[in-house]
């Protein structure tokens, strides 16, 4: 069992509070006491609990990342893991710890978050777009509390907050541009969500790029809120069984992409000759399935880094007590197409 601060105090023959003052380099501690405490620390191999020290002293060296653990599909994935890693690495470089807190839009969770802020237990906050609301944004502004949002939406109040996001309109356009260059001219778009702003942005980019290239993207070949595999099979069966079927389908998730490949195979369609399949998820599933699925490469690690850097920029300004309002920053990150066999150029 590791040594505690009480063990150090007992060996040094001082109180735990004296040990704490020595470790925090407080003034008015005799050289003899400092020497005794340091000797006890070395002998017991004592490692201070940085979180406990921060909470006790009020010297906040912690930033928080809020997530909603009730939405497993949004957070329990490699994409968000990379984002967390980017935030943590940046925080570590700034000699800060990262605290992950569970937070929904319930009044109880919001009160817990407010206690952390008002109690000065965290120095700053990063939270996903799904958790920010006008009420929370107003409260954070009232407290002049530094925070950054992962993602964006089209609400008026988000124009006044700092956020970092993927350029999803551009991502939607990239998918169409790639398929057009491969010779596909009748495109469809299938998604398992419709309310999320990022999906609407991708569809906007998809539609605008289709118009730009004179590509047919008929209304009945755009389907959103396909939330179950059964629904997906019904939609795909109707599309691919039609005499005017699309010759390429853009899928919002890896599951929809694999379902599309399986449906095409069951109908005797060859991918990519008869049907191109493109996906926004670059996962192991899309990479190693046969045929491998062309997808969008999104650097979610960099998303975390940029969000943390933007937060620390706010913290530095607050620490310097610089006058004037902070400049609101909106950062859009680029993405790139990762071409694979599922959209190989039609000969």
From TrEMBL:
**GO molecular function annotation:** DNA-binding transcription factor activity; transcription cis-regulatory region binding
Q: Which Pfam families match?
A: LacI, Peripla_BP_3
* Protein name, per record: Transcriptional regulator, LacI family
Which source organism does the UniProt entry give? Amygdalobacter nucleatus
Q: Which domain of life is it from?
A: Bacteria
List the keywords (alphabetical): DNA-binding, Transcription, Transcription regulation
Q: Read off the InterPro entries from this record.
A: HTH_LacI (IPR000843), LacI/GalR-like_sensor (IPR046335), Lambda_DNA-bd_dom_sf (IPR010982), Peripla_BP_I (IPR028082)
Span of domain HTH lacI-type: 3-57
């Amino acid at each position: 069992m590791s040594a505690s601060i009480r063990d150090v105090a007992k060996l040094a023959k001082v109180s735990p509070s004296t040990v704490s003052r020595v470790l925090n380099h407080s003034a008015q501690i005799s050289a003899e006491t400092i020497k005794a405490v340091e000797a006890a620390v070395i002998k017991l191999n004592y490692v201070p609990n940085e979180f406990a020290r921060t909470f006790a002293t009020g010297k906040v060296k912690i930033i928080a990342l809020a997530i909603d653990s009730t939405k497993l599909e949004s957070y329990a994935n490699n994409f968000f893991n990379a984002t967390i890693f980017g935030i943590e690495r940046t925080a570590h470089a700034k000699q800060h710890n990262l605290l992950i807190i569970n937070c929904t839009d319930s009044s109880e969770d919001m009160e817990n978050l407010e206690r952390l802020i008002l109690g000065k237990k965290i120095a700053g906050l990063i939270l996903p777009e799904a958790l920010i609301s006008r009420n929370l944004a107003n409260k954070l502004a009232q407290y002049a509390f530094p925070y950054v949002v992962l993602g964006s939406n089209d609400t008026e109040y988000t124009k006044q907050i700092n956020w970092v996001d993927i350029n999803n309109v551009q991502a939607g356009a990239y998918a169409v541009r790639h398929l057009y260059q491969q010779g596909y001219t009748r495109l469809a778009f299938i998604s398992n969500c419709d309310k999320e702003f990022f999906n609407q942005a991708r569809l906007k980019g998809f539609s605008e790029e289709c118009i730009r290239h004179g590509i047919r993207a008929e209304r009945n070949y755009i389907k959103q809120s396909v939330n179950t595999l059964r629904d997906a099979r019904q939609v795909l069966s109707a599309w691919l069984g039609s005499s005017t079927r699309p010759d390429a389908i853009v899928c919002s998730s890896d599951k929809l992409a694999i379902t599309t490949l399986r449906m095409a195979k069951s109908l005797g369609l060859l991918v990519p000759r008869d049907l191109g399949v493109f996906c926004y998820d670059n996962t192991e599933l899309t990479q190693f399935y046969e045929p491998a699925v062309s997808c969008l490469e999104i650097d979610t690690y960099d998303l975390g880094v940029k969000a943390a850097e933007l937060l620390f920029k706010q913290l530095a300004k607050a620490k310097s007590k610089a006058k004037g309002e902070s400049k609101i920053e909106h950062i859009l990150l680029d993405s790139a197409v990762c071409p694979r066999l599922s959209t190989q150029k039609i000969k």
